[in-house]
Amino acid sequence: MPATQTVKRRFRGFTLIEMILVMAILIMAVSISAPKLSHFFSGRALDSEARRVLSLIRVGQSRAVSEGLPMELWFDATERRYVLEAETSSRTGGSDTDSKRIELPLDRDVKIVVPIQTIARPAPTRSAMMPASTASVAPVVLKQPSLPTIRFLPDGSFGETSPQTLQLIDREGASLWVTLSRNRMNYEIRTQID
Residue 108 falls within a domain, yes or no? Predict the structure, then answer.
């Protein structure tokens, strides 16, 4: 063969039948795995939302301690949002706006339910050493009194009327609970409630 003669290269492409066969296999693979993937992603939304709520609880608790102000985290299921903001006192006369207010929307695939269950109030005790007047204690003025509210006190504890449990439910009905821990010092995520 002479050196100047070009060698024909043969490029082979896909035929129409091969393309249709590959597409059919892909469609079958996706149709088999799609239900499992949807459950995976909805479960991730539920877990992610529970972690966001827990993070906001920890931010509220930390902020109450560091700023020395009571904080409120209230949940509005109808507006699908939850808000963390400083509590206002009727005595301070300050503005009702909180520059560090955090408002987060609830994930579209998750709903929140707050059962009517509160922390039991401790029985009032009085000793001879305690003054009889409570005039120095500022009255509690919740910003959203009709909504479930976790109240963070400046000492790091939770208010007496804070809900013990928040239930997060995804669209398939799976649930996670954000619930007050046994020592009542923080909240935690649980897969089932005792």
Answer: yes
